[in-house]
Amino acid sequence: MDELMDLFLGHLSVEKGLSDNTLSAYGADLRELARYLRQSEIANWGEVSRDHLVAYIEKLGATLSNRSKARHLAAVRSFFKYLERQERIPSNPAARLHFPKISLTLPRVLSATEVETLLETPEAGSPFGQRDKAMLELLYATGLRVSELADLQLRQVHLDAGYLIVRGKGDKERLTPMGDWAGEALKAYLQEGRAKLLKQKSAQEVFLNHHGQKLSRQGIWKIIKQYAVKAAIPQNITPHMLRHSFATHLLENGADLRSLQAMLGHADISTTQIYTHVARARLKEIHQKFHPRP
After folding, report:
1. I need a surface site. Which of 7, 47, 60, 294 has the fewest CB within 10 A?
2. Is 26 part of the annotated catalytic residue set?
């Protein structure tokens, strides 16, 4: 059973170009399923029936949310579809499994004023301040995922033309405009602060830690939280909130969904459409707050 799981994960890595994080999640989900099946005395994937999988999903329901169950089920369905194509199983027991209903959860966003306050917090007189200013400006100006920011390399930056070539999910590249404010902050960091952080070492990544090495996703997360505290922003800020704010503010100011989809790197426009719900919710909130007869 383990050998086929490894072949499947290798297929996802080589053929589909999925990220390490996605591969890790798929692997963990499938190993959990394999443990459950072995406890049920099932020795190979060809013995698995739809009833086995339904019982497994029901077992997950005792401890996981519908969203987490849906993620598990996506891994399971993809795996059995692969086994069927490779003729490793007589039939696909996951073919008719249905995803659990997931309630629509609107992403949390910052107001334009909160974003402005956050972006003004770093002190650009030090290498770390220049780095953090560039990071915050870039996250809000481009809507990058935190992993994309951490992995960003010098060759992907086109300062004079004002855009980045971003490598996103599925190893797909997209062109992302960065705007003047982020461009100026990034230019200042690259010309001054980065060289001091590099400490005569060599690194291709744009954003570096105090050792002159690539700044991790966790490091970026921690830095953003620290600036949120300094800016006295009450929300529990995450890097993804800046991505959500980028998308919502663009829509509120007239951007179209297709352009937003391209900038965010969404494969399916239905993923981008969540921001239309956010924009409508914010309009209702403003109406209730300021209209004399809400």
Report:
1. 294
2. no
